[in-house]
Amino acid sequence: MARIKEAAAGVWDDPWWTLPNLLSVLRLAGVPLFLWLLLGPHSDLLALLVLVASGITDWLDGKLARWLGQYSRLGQLLDPAADRLYIIATLFAFVLRGVVPWWAATALIARDVVLTLCLPVLRYHGYEPPDVHYLGKAATFCLMYAFPLLLLVQGDFSFDAVVRPVAYAFTCWGGALYLWAGVLYLVQVIAAVRVAHTHRGRSGRFGRA
Q: Do residues 167 and 152 lie in contact, with contact meaning Cβ atoms separated by under 8 Å?
């Protein structure tokens, strides 16, 4: 518990009011709006614009953090959290609207639930929250392209015959990579816990799948 409190204190001590963090908060605020647009009025075009805006701010907050030197632990937590929430919200809405099968969405959401439960385990054993791995980034990249394309083909779209197979391809590639990255990450967590049990008191950092 002392280790968890120490790690949490590091987040609180970081600068909060930075431009990259503000963009991340705006991305998070767009999640309920995005979900309502999909499930309420079925305004797919507006929902698509929200999703595109989220992708732009995702790219921009990283660029601004590097340009302005405004790095913070809070920003490192908010950015992937926003990605996960958009993915979960989209999958939830797509299942209710029959766009994707429930078992596929359940597998992807279960992956995030399991990895989220791993974070306090890592904290307890003295490990910092892991960095995002390139495979996880590639999976998120594919899914963030797949979702807008899937939205496009739900209505009367002129290039439906061309876009639909591309949308399904990105969905399959992204889903497979997402699950595979989760498996690799879980293996790393298990290995880290074993090392911690062997060498009590040692802490470290490792890449996230």
A: yes
pLDDT winner (highest mean) among 18-22, 87-91, 196-200 = 87-91
Q: Which amino acid would we find at residue 8?
A: A
Please state, in angstroms and rounded to a whole number, the distance separating the CA atoms of residues 125 and 195.
Answer: 9
What the block records as the tokens of 121 is 């385990």
The band of 129, judged by pLDDT with boundaries at 50, 70 and 90, is low
CA separation for the pair 175, 45 (Å, rounded): 24
User: Predicted confidence band at 55 (pLDDT cuts at 50, 70, 90)?
Assistant: confident
Count the residues in the chain. 209
What is the number of H-type helices and E-type strands within the chain?
A: 7, 0
Helix axes 160-198, 102-124, angle to 10 degrees: 30
pLDDT in tens, 4-29: 444 444 444 455 667 777 888 888 88
Complete DSSP assignment for 6-18: HHHHHHHHS----
- Cβ-based neighbour number of residue 109 at 10 Å: 16
**Cβ–Cβ under 8 Å, residues 140 and 86:** no
Q: Which residues pair with 207 in a beta bridge?
A: 131
Cβ contact 129:122 at 8 Å: yes
